[in-house]
Amino acid sequence: xxxxxxxxxxxxxxxxxxxxxxxxxxxxxxxxxxxxxxxxxxxxxxxxxxxxxxxxxxxxxxxxxxxxxxxxxxxxxxxxxxxxxxxxxxxxxxxxxxxxxxxxxxxxxxxxxxxxxxxxxxxxxxxxxxxxxxxxxxxxxxxxxxxxxxxxxxxxxxxxxxxxxxxxxxxxxxxxxxxxxxxxxxxxxxxxxxxxxxxxxxxxxxxxxxxxxxxxxxxxxxxxxxxxxxxxxxxxxxxxxxxxxxxxxxxxxxxxxxxxxxxxxxxxxxxxxxxxxxxxxxxxxxxxxxxxxxxxxxxxxxxxxxxxxxxxxxxxxxxxxxxxxxxxxx
Length: 330
Prior knowledge:
mainly alpha, 68% helix
């Protein structure tokens, strides 16, 4: 009786080890590690604050005659829960995560690419203005790649809300991510409809991301104990909260403009802005200067846990991918 053997010869251990080593070295490159860690950080941070993110959008798109959510944040969250339950808290979060993973990955990866042009030597620290510029360029790069998903997420967040002008027939099935994207493409101007509102978005994202990176790296040093290279996990959380709060407060009116333009042609919302200047004039005229800051309270409430969890997740994931021991990043 003969025993059959495989004709395939196992790869020599040395080749397998070399392949694994090459794979590990590839992911340990700073840009690649930052790309992977940025994606993880984005998903974690947005899921943590999903209810407040959606409430911010609902506040932003209100105007004169549309005040269903003109109330305090706790009451608005309670209304959202009564009307839609847990699914209301998470409305648009799936699309948001699909968007934020590549968005955050590209942003952190691009920052590491851009900063190489300003380093006097690999790993050298940048000054505040260089961090601001590199962060701004990284923000523009990431938003350009992922903007269609952002505008779809905004519409998903709004379409099930209890706005009087958005009343629908009982039992009417709401479209999902691909349904909305297809409808916009067919009915609202083709490819360019998916980039409606990108100008005020870029105008707000560039300084926001730039400030975020600049302030975080400055705050990070303040939370690092003397004699240590890195802050503790609590220090990273605190630095992230500070950077997010500063960046959001300085650039918030651009975020309101972005949301208004994203729903400019959405049936029932009624906004008809000709451009950024026209939008600002109309908002200030009908809603006052405070109209440019609608939704800032839930936004600030979400910024601290969002950016804190984002930066901590980013640093821990990056250090893990780069092979640092647990004791080195906790």
